[in-house]
Design goal:
Blueprint lengths: L2 H20 L9 H4 L25 H15 L1 H16 L9 H4 L2 H11 L8 H26 L15 H17 L4 H20 L5 H30 L6 E8 L2 E8 L2
Antiparallel strand pairs: 1-2
Helix pairs in contact: 1-9, 1-10, 3-4, 3-10, 6-8, 6-9, 7-8, 7-10, 8-9, 8-10, 9-10
């Protein structure tokens, strides 16, 4: 495995391994309660007095480093060489037919959250709160991605347009992967691992299809992770300030996906 591809795998692997080992507890016994996580998890009391917490900046260091790498790869000669090497290894030296699995795989991590709930394996939040958080994450991620695409004007490797940086598919996939990890990290860290593997595969397929440079994919991963972590940080603030004295069963959230602005409706019965 040559340097550019190894680098991308390393980036993804570091963030997959971080939540896994951080949550490993050797003193945990493998009893039936731990093996069967299909009981509803405690609901968050949004009416409780908010606990003041400092901004969790450490959580954002790793994904921010990914974004910085991607930005530097636009103008730094050494990193541009890695972009070219990745393209040569994946596409130029091994021409192949494009596959379009990445168009669907990008949504798989987020869809897994709802699928797990359907089969009775409950995560951190209920349907309303979970969907609102994901809606905020999608809005942040999509706004950043499409704004930067217009500003950067980077050509794609195949020369089709100047919307290469950063990778929107990858950002969407990693936002969903972090969403899956956050919702199920207290059930099992392996759900997060699965989500990040799907996101990593999405990023690789964007290079496999000659649609993005390595730097585009790395930056997209960072944008996606940051977007979801920001959503989890700001949603409790928004909900407590706006809905602290009201029981909320319906919420309309703005969404921005693939260049289209829309609204998402969530109602709990």
């Amino acid at each position: 495995m040559q340097k550019p591809i190894f680098l991308f795998v390393l980036f993804v692997g570091c963030h997959i391994g971080q939540p896994l080992f951080a949550q490993y507890n050797p003193d945990t016994t493998l009893d039936s309660k731990n093996l069967h996580a299909d009981t509803p998890r405690p609901a968050i009391d949004w009416k409780a007095a908010p606990v003041k917490q400092a901004f969790p900046y450490k959580k954002f260091l790793f994904p921010s480093a990914l974004v910085v790498y991607g930005v530097l790869a636009i103008k730094t000669d050494a990193l541009q060489d890695w972009n070219e090497e990745a393209k040569e290894e994946i596409w130029t030296e091994n021409p192949h037919k494009q596959i379009h699995l990445d168009n669907y795989l990008q949504f798989a991590p987020a869809a897994t959250v709802y699928g797990l709930n359907i089969v009775g394996i409950h995560g951190k939040n209920n349907l309303l709160d979970r969907s609102a958080i994901y809606g905020i994450s999608t809005l942040i991620m999509s706004s950043v991605v499409f704004s930067v695409k217009k500003i950067s004007g980077e050509w794609r490797p195949d020369g089709s347009d100047q919307l290469s940086f950063p990778s929107g598919h990858t950002a969407n996939a990693f936002a969903g992967a972090e969403f899956l990890r956050q919702e199920y990290k207290d059930v099992s860290p392996w759900y997060g691992v699965a989500g990040y593997l799907m996101a990593g595969a999405t990023g690789y397929l964007r290079m496999y299809n000659n649609k993005h440079w390595l730097g585009d994919v790395v930056a997209g991963a960072g944008v996606g992770i940051i977007s979801t972590d920001l959503a989890y940080y700001i949603y409790p603030i928004i909900k407590r300030k706006i809905f602290k004295n009201h029981a909320v069963s319906t919420m309309v959230m703005p969404q921005y996906q693939n260049g289209a602005l829309g609204l998402g409706l969530v109602h709990t019965f």
